[in-house]
């Protein structure tokens, strides 16, 4: 372990309840202190004070691009290649619909069982709409590379598996896709803000992601989409809304796409949510992503070591090799739901993913070694004592 | 005019800059005072204090339906038939894609030149994606009824014309559509909160709308979608995201639509924006929509009379008959852009719509007779004096 927490200073930028061990920043990031005041200002001074004029005077109209550039710096995307808006599901749809049109003679979308379900659902919906015999081919994560062949129009993968934390090799799989003429779409939901990403260097074609996890943008914060500059003027946005029009305020009868990635904007931007995200991104100023990754690995390894020191039988669902893992650690337990409820009741927040995963996220910006040791100790204690085995911990919540 | 403003009390529920005459609530509604505190609470106590647990403990997961029911009460939609989320553009796409699948043997989408461009753009995008020879047939508003024939799969109309304020007869056109086996999709962007709407009574098939105009939900506030109960279990959501799945947290590999309109949810709901809207809807509690409509007509008629008393030549772009008009009044002026900029500089906020429309919205909840008289007087004065004719008023803003 580092002698001194290199991210000690950033913890002060977050509001976290005293005594809580929050290991779920991979699901909903903690609240940056800058968000509340910034949102209050946007509501009172911009909306309340400038009203409709704020679209110009407060720069609302450019927020999706301006915030997109800030996200871009964290994922290896040059300025002008990322825009914000909608949800990850919608952005997946846009990327996939564009990709299929760019490969009209191919009919396979290749994905894996580690992809987040909404990506698969959106693909299924698109395929049903198109009605042209596209196939969603879903293989095991380890089988993806071998399954990329000349039938594949688009490889659609989440870089970090939401259950296990297994990390795909973005550069290698993108290269393999390009070698056979396929396009690569990367979902960065569990990568953006979790580890260094080099979209341009990996030559990714499309990337999408949400901002409410490691980027701390708030519940349901707007998503992002990246389109490779070499494709951005050719990709047709299936969801062709007025804010993706070249001249939205000319009110022309026919759609003409804006230049570049701006065409992937759809409707009126969610100003208040974008302002919250914009404020949340302040904590990332000056953060060295390599240092963050090193610290995330230290924390994750510490957690595994502390748990396995007492409970060597608890099955690690994540890769043991930290270089093959995102910023989360998962274990398998047949009664994972009840175990997680017991943990939450004792102030350690992780989450459960059906059928048997208990999941813990490591966010160096606001988590230290003490949190990790304490979380591990309580997990060990709960499992050793069996005190998870109570009816109240089996009662299912709507959201797990 | 009513002797006493029947909505005098509601004005106190809004924050409006002193001295401003805000006649643009049809574009961005004014700020309800309840919004700031409610959003601050959601950020600090729910996100900051309850973190991921707030999806259950603060009821975030049900916000799209709960807020949808509140909107539903204003548009004649029974509980459980409206959900919130995304933008109007996305909701138009969902409604239209579903409608086309429900009428697989027909290939015409009928709309009119008074529809808002994004509705037309989304239809164009969908048609291009489907590649099955659908046609977007756009006729003059007066020609819609005669153009509804057995080739039409869906009639897609905005009830109140964004430029002229002309009001379509929803019940009659829906009946006509049904008579020939077509479906009717209504965009209520300029109707919801502007006038009484009876979706169920009119037997509309789908309806969509935004909430940042008359409903005062804030810039880029979430949209809504209504699906007629008799269709809701048959409509396939082309945008099939995980929050529209029957069991989102089962993480099943295949999409299974939720029952009813909930299937039209797509991605993770925008919690902060929904909370702002939820607070904004408080001002609608107890409002009689018939009384609101009567007052809106009084204010609109007063504005027209005051303007025409001095400027009888200024061409009214809106129907003179208030029963055929929404809650806005528009005039035509070849230099409308500069005229509007001059008005704004003198504290009267309306907006301009290319090529020659100056547009004024009437929102009885926070506008009184004095505002209307003052706005009209300044418009008359600016036009009579010609002091709109200055270079600084011709300089184009990005957003008009």
From TrEMBL, chains A, B:
* Positions of post-translational N6-(pyridoxal phosphate)lysine modification: 213
Residues annotated as binding pyridoxal 5'-phosphate are: 88-89, 116-119, 158, 187, 190, 212, 242, 268
Report the transmembrane regions from the record: none
Query: Which pathway or pathways does this protein act in?
Result: Amino-acid degradation; L-kynurenine degradation; L-alanine and anthranilate from L-kynurenine: step 1/1; Cofactor biosynthesis; NAD(+) biosynthesis; quinolinate from L-kynurenine: step 2/3
User: Is Magnesium one of the keywords?
Assistant: no
Keywords assigned by UniProt? Answer: Hydrolase, Pyridine nucleotide biosynthesis, Pyridoxal phosphate
- Give the highest taxon in the source lineage: Bacteria
- Could you provide one GO biological process annotation from this protein's UniProt record? L-tryptophan catabolic process to kynurenine
Reported cofactor(s): pyridoxal 5'-phosphate
| Entry GO terms, CC | cytoplasm
Gene3D superfamilies on file: Aspartate Aminotransferase, domain 1, Type I PLP-dependent aspartate aminotransferase-like (Major domain)
Q: Name one GO molecular function term.
A: pyridoxal phosphate binding
> EC annotation?
3.7.1.3
Q: Which reaction does it catalyse?
A: 3-hydroxy-L-kynurenine + H2O = 3-hydroxyanthranilate + L-alanine + H(+); L-kynurenine + H2O = anthranilate + L-alanine + H(+)
Q: Which NCBIfam families match?
A: kynureninase
Q: Tell me which family the UniProt entry assigns to this protein.
A: Belongs to the kynureninase family.
- PANTHER family xrefs: KYNURENINASE
Subunit composition and interactions: Homodimer.
Q: What does this protein do?
A: Catalyzes the cleavage of L-kynurenine (L-Kyn) and L-3-hydroxykynurenine (L-3OHKyn) into anthranilic acid (AA) and 3-hydroxyanthranilic acid (3-OHAA), respectively.
The protein's name in its UniProt record: Kynureninase
Species: Aureimonas phyllosphaerae
């Amino acid at each position: 372990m580092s002698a001194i927490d290199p991210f000690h200073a950033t913890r002060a930028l977050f509001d976290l309840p005293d005594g809580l061990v929050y290991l779920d920043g991979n699901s909903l990031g903690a609240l940056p202190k800058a968000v509340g005041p910034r949102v209050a200002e946007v509501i009172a001074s911009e909306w309340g004070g400038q009203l409709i004029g704020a679209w110009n005077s407060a720069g609302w109209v450019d927020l999706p691009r301006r915030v997109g550039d800030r996200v871009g710096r964290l994922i290896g995307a040059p300025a002008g290649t990322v825009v914000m808006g909608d949800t990850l599901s919608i952005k997946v749809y846009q990327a996939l619909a564009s990709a299929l049109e760019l490969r009209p003679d191919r009919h396979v979308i290749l994905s894996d069982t580690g992809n987040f379900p909404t990506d698969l659902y959106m693909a299924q919906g698109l395929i049903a709409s198109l009605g042209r015999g596209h196939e969603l081919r879903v293989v095991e994560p380890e089988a993806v590379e071998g399954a990329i062949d000349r039938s594949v129009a688009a490889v659609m993968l989440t870089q970090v598996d939401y259950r296990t934390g297994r990390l795909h090799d973005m550069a290698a799989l993108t290269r393999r896709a390009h070698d056979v003429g396929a396009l690569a779409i990367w979902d960065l939901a569990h990568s953006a803000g979790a580890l260094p990403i080099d979209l341009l260097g990996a030559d990714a074609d499309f990337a999408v992601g949400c901002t409410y996890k490691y980027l701390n943008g708030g519940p349901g914060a707007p998503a992002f989409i990246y389109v490779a500059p070499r494709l951005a003027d050719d990709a047709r946005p299936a969801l062709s809304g007025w804010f993706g029009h070249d001249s939205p305020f000319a009110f022309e009868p026919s759609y003409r796409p804006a230049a570049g990635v701006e065409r992937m904007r759809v409707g009126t931007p969610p100003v208040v949510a974008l302002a919250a995200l914009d404020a949340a991104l302040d904590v990332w100023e000056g953060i060295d992503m390599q240092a963050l990754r090193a610290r995330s690995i230290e924390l994750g390894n510490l957690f595994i070591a502390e748990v396995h020191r007492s409970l060597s039988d608890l099955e690690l669902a994540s890769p043991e090799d930290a270089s093959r893992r995102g910023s989360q650690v998962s274990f398998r337990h047949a009664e994972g739901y009840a175990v997680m409820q017991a943990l939450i009741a004792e102030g350690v927040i992780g989450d459960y993913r059906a059928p048997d995963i208990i999941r813990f996220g490591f966010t160096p910006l606001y988590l230290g070694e003490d949190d990790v040791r304490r979380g591990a100790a309580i997990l060990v204690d709960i499992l050793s004592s069996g005190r998870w085995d109570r009816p109240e911990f089996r009662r299912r919540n709507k959201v797990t």
